[in-house]
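Reviewers of the previous submission asked for a worked example of the structure-prediction workflow described in the proposal, so we include one complete record here. The input consisted solely of the amino acid sequence. No template or homolog information was supplied to the procedure at any stage.
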Amino acid sequence: MPPPLPRRPAWGESAEPTPPPPVSVGPPEHQTPVDPWAGVDTGGWDLPSAELPPLPPTLSYPAPPETRQWSSGPPAPPVGPYPVSPSAPIAPRAVGPVAPPPAAPSAPRAAGPMVPARPMSPPAPPKVPKQRRARRQPAPPPAPPGWQAPKGYVPVPVRRRRRWPWLLLLTLACCCGCPAYYGFPISAQYPARAALPVQVDDLSRRQDNRSTETAKKLENEVRKEHWLAEDTFAGVYATTSGKRVTVFGGTGFRFSPESDAEAEISRLTDRYALSAPESVDTGVRGRHERCAVGSADGSDVVVCTSVDHGSIATGVFTRLSVADSADLLASLRAQIVQPERG
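From that input alone, the workflow returned the following C-alpha cells.
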C-alpha cells in the first residue's frame, strides 16, 4: 500500500512544520534508572557446548636477555623553535586543513592568457679547475745500516740534466755527419786529371816504337771497356836492371770502386792466367786494390789494379812480389793521377 501523499498547506499556513512542544525533563540524577532487560526471559542463554579435544602443550618462550640499565638522568629538553617552560601549559593542537600564507602583493600584469610559472632550478655550483699532478720523483734508496759520511762531506742536490741537447746533437750528426762521411772521399778524389811522367823513382818511360805501339793499344782498350772515362792513359816503364812495368787506366766518376776493382781483375784473368786475387789495404778511404799472380810471354807477372771514386789504374809488374808490386803501383798513381781540388 503506497504511503499517503503529503498534505498541502492551507492559505496563510506556514510551510515549515510546527515543532512539538518541549517535554520538561528533570536532571538525570533525579530520574529513576530503567533496566533494559526487564521482563525478558534470560533462562535460555546457557547453550550446550560440544566437547573439544584438549589443546597440545605450547612451548615455553626463552627468557629474554637482560638489558643494560641506563643511568637515569635529567630529561632532555623538548625540541622546538621556542623554549617551553615546564610550568607553562601546552596549547592544544588544531586539527584540520592549514590555510596557506597570504601571497605578497605583486605588480599588476598586462591582460593576456595566464601562463603557469615554472619553478626556477637552483644555480649550478662553480666548476673546480683540475689541478695537474706533479710527477713524483722516486725516493732515493736508504743508506745501509751503520753507514757514515766521510769527514768533510757536504750533501749537494743533484740537478736533473736535460736530454734535449743530446737528442739535437744526435739528430744533427745523423743528418749532417752521414752525408759528410760518405761525401768527403768523393770530393777528395773526383774530379782528377792524368799525365804520364818521364821518370818515377828508378823507372824511366820508354819511347821506342814497340813501347809506343803497346801503350796506344792499351789506351784504346781502356777507352772501349770504360766508355764513361773522361781521360785515359797508358805507358811502359823499365829499370836498368831489366824490370819492366806497364801501367794503364783512366779518370772519371765511379760510384762503387770496390766492385769496379773486382770487375777489372776478372777481365784480365784470361789474358794473364791470373790466380785468385788478393785484397790489398791502401790506407785511403774509398780506394780499393786487388792483386793476382799470372804469366805473360813465358815469365811470371803480378797484376794489380787500384780504383777510387775518381780514377782507375792497373799495372803489370815483372820480377817483383805482390807486396812490392802494390807499393810500386801506389807510387806510380800518385805521380800520374792528380785530383783537381778547388
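The longest strand covers residues 288-296. We consider this example representative of the routine output the project will generate in years two and three.
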